[in-house]
Amino acid sequence: MALLTVSGLGVTIGTLSPLDDVSFEAHKGEILGLVGESGSGKSLTAMAVMGLLGRIGGRVSSGSILFDGQELVGLRDSSYRRLRGKRIALISQNPMTSLDPIVRIGAQIDQVSLLHLRLSKPAAKARSIDLMQQLRIPDAETLHRAYPHQLSGGMKQRIVIAMALAADPDLIIADEPTTALDVTIQAQIIQIMVDLVRARDLALILITHDMGVVAQACNRVVVLYAGRVAETNTTQAIFASPCHPYTASLIGCIPSRDQAEGTLLGIPGTVPGVLNYPKGCRFHPRCGDAMQVCARTVPPTTAQPTGSVACHLHEVVT
Amino acid sequence: MALRFLWGVVHTPRGGASAFVLMLVIACALFAPLIAPYGYALQNLPGSNTSPNALHWLGTDEFGRDLLSRIIHGARTSLTVAVTAISISVVVGMTFGAIAGYFGGMFDRVVTAVVDLTWSFPEILIALILIAIIGTGTESIIIAISIAYLAQFTRLTRAQVMALRQETYIEATVNLGAGHFHVIFRHLLPNAITPVIVAGMLAIGDAIILEATLGFFGLGAQPPIPSWGAMMSSGTAQIFIAPWIILFPGAAIALTVISINLFGDALIDALNIRSRLRDV
């Protein structure tokens, strides 16, 4: 059974509805990639699962978020607070600014287990140092007393991951955890997370726009476009035979060795803003395979051997 | 680290000179009975209004009391009142400001309205109104001064907290399940405290002047306890016979306040927080 089942999730912010009918599942021991360009609703999905939409004045307008058998939509904030950090942890985008500059690193990791596991101070410290060592942070004892400004970006991101792990959550949502890091450090951090998922039987939702990261880490992929799910499938299937033209063009954007010199492919146009989502299939103005029907009706989600796709090209004709 | 930082401030000409004077004033306040050559209430009517001489370095007042001793004891009154009042003001103001800035909503609107209202009156007026209500005496002027300066710290803390609330690390702490209390007291206030402390230090200078003004009107410490303001007030009658009675307490006030302002200024520059203080 899936640990997290999101079905038909819609989010509204005021009169806008930047997200509608988003469905996916996250399983223990698996990494689910949430992929899409900027503005496709990836971070919004994460915020909806974390119950943080109030922060930006949004709310869940439809659908359900089922976590370990518990409905999260409509959950009171005080109950949500017991889930955050303890059962579901969020790793945010920028490690440079995710740590309080005037609190020692150790104390920041400690506070999570102090809060959720009610450990004693020495026990929390021992646990933090142990976690730091698991994340291959050298000289953990010394760094436990260091301040954030004394660390590099990659080290800071490991500390942020350690904070997320401190209370032993079941689900981790990592919102572009490597975007702010050097490419070499990126690969290390991704590898650390892959190992963690295997070792601790975690469910990880990895939000990214980097198809390389997806290929390296994810088991399954959800492709979001303009607030809707375009395609869901296993990573293998997505790369081998993308069903949705959008997925195909995303993969087409990855430079390959045997590509002609000097031509980097892109997808023409930009993601439409929430104010002017096109009618019908939201990708149709940028789609090479667009048909007349695409501009009129929203494509239904149709099942594929290992996933599903929302595209008129794959519609089952009855 | 904090010690080394203070050492650096003291090593600038401005910081060093002002720190020296301040240490002197603080020493007078702490050890007044040991430093003062005479008791502050010791009268000697035949020797009244004597000009400065070898026995009485700063002369005597209309009751023949040694001015130097009274100024040294006066430092105790002035500093006690100013420091206590501003400390209360800072603690209460930070609490109000943090809650208002963090939660917003109705509480924030009420606090902001009250702050804006009191901000439009001079501090002395607020203090006078309060003293009219609660009566004179040392405790009264401490309460009056602390309320008169409350608006300033509430406003400053609120502005700091509202800016810090948007920081990623605050959001990250909430994302990990921290409660409001933890976020406010462990993360927001420690990050907001520096400019508030410096503003508080500078406000002590203002509070000394306010205390002296209230003392001048006879509303502060009651005789024979010396306060710089009351001493100046009693000197007005003798201004043409014994000008030193009004001159020396006035000089003590000026020197103390200037030192506080210079030291505060040196701190602001060393901490590089001038812009954070300005956006109040």
Automatic annotation (TrEMBL), chain A:
Any one GO molecular-function label of the UniProt entry: ATP binding
Residues annotated as domain ABC transporter: 4-251
Membrane topology note: Peripheral membrane protein
UniProt xrefs under SMART domains: AAA
Residues annotated as transmembrane: none
Entry's localization field: Cell inner membrane
Coiled coil: none
Record-linked PROSITE patterns: ABC_TRANSPORTER_1, ABC_TRANSPORTER_2
Keywords annotated in UniProt: ATP-binding, Cell membrane, Membrane, Nucleotide-binding, Transport
Alphabetized PANTHER family for the sequence: DIPEPTIDE TRANSPORT ATP-BINDING PROTEIN DPPD, OLIGOPEPTIDE TRANSPORT ATP-BINDING PROTEIN APPD
Family: Belongs to the ABC transporter superfamily.
Protein name per its UniProtKB record: ABC transporter ATP-binding protein
Species this protein is from: Roseinatronobacter alkalisoli
UniProtKB/TrEMBL annotation, chain B:
PANTHER family, A to Z: D,D-DIPEPTIDE TRANSPORT SYSTEM PERMEASE PROTEIN DDPC-RELATED, OLIGOPEPTIDE TRANSPORT SYSTEM PERMEASE PROTEIN APPC
Ranges where the ABC transmembrane type-1 domain occurs: 75-264
Localization, UniProt: Cell membrane
Keyword NADP attributed: no
Database matches in Pfam families: BPD_transp_1, OppC_N
Principal place of residence: membrane
Membrane disposition: Multi-pass membrane protein
Protein name per the record: ABC transporter permease
Transmembrane segments: 20-41, 79-104, 124-150, 196-221, 241-268
UniProt cross-references to Gene3D superfamilies, sorted A to Z: MetI-like
